[in-house]
Amino acid sequence: MKNPFLKKQNFLVFLSVLFLALTQISCNNDDNNNDGDDDDDDVPVGTLPPVETKPANTTYLPAFKGQTRIAGIKTETAYTTKAFATGLSSPWGMDNLPDGRIIVTQKAGTMRIVTQSGTVGPAITGILPVNSADQGGLLDVAVDPAFVTNRMIYWSYAFQGDGGTATAVAKGKLSADESKIEGAVTIYKAIPEFNSTKHYGSRLIWDAQGNLLVSTGERSELGSRPLAQKLDAALGKIVRITKSGEPAAGNPFIGQTGVLPEIYSYGHRNPQGIAIHPVTGELWESEHGPRGGDEINRVAASKNYGWPTISYGIEYSGAKIGEGITTKSGMEQPVYYWDPVISPSGITFYSGSLIPEWKNNLFIAALSGQHVVRLVLKDNTVVAEERLLTSANSRFRDILEGKDGALYAVTDGANATIYKIAK
Q1: If we measure between CA atoms, which residue out of 212, 214, 139, 126 comes closest to residue 174?
Q2: Which of 20, 51, 59, 204 has the least C-beta neighbours within 10 A?
Q3: Catalytic residue among 199, 268, 288, 371
Q4: Residue 156 is inside which H or E element, if any?
């Protein structure tokens, strides 16, 4: 006998998808009208069907037009994609060295340097021990802005402590022969330690003042989730620290009793991408949702991004998250979300000139989605979405704009590949 509840649920999902499609058509019609915004009139708006065609996991409706399943777009400029470097072992993060080479972390606890011709150098050792179980290991890497004079490298990793594991940040000096890290020391640890091997975050990026922005996960477990809302814990946060690991001057909660002074924003689930907009200087973030509800957020100091109180996803079991609500006063809405998920990891804004129509677009490495996302932005909203590198059939862990203006996207897992996207 057929289950009438399931039949009702399928009908509700159909109505939700139909509503979203009609919403996007309305949005596209609005965007094609003259809105009086001369500064952004040259931004292309999607005119193709949305790239996502699979049914959503929920019947939740977006809070505003264009928040999900926006119209598709196709790059008009001819470009090439090619395997640039191969043989990497579970890479996680990448950053540019001043001379155009790329330094890459490997999950087990080593780094490699990739030359401009795609040659992968030997493993760099001397890195502090990591807990590489499950989602842990050596995570992101950030080259000191003054590397030419101090040769300092910063990285995030899964720290193993007496009370469990934690997202931590360390630094050390790359030796002259580039074979090892010298004087490695941990400068920051996201407290409390927790017995979990999931949801570490974790990305690093420099702000305009030379401080380090660090994303941390809420560690996945039901017992740790509420800490994303607690200001005396560093889980589920973006923190802003100095090169020595101290709270950066100007942080929004400095001086408040019972609040960690390094906190910049909170209410995050598992933020695996952060990037600075090349024009506005604002911080943007990608965040893994549960079953549905992957997010892109425009992050501002002191703001609360809602997890686990609000979410556009559900539990993997199909149960609702908390009260099953998507909005609440005092909590920020994502700029964009996906349902079903694509598992967004590293992100970057394109500021190069090789492909002019990509200027200031946001690019996202998608793990379960197995592609690279291109989001076209206008007035801090998404107006078009495109999927690149779909034929690679690979999970993408990170993406970087190189010194040469090309994009470099690295796959996940054993014998991984860096793909170069250029004109």
Answers
A1: 126
A2: 59
A3: 199
A4: strand 152-161
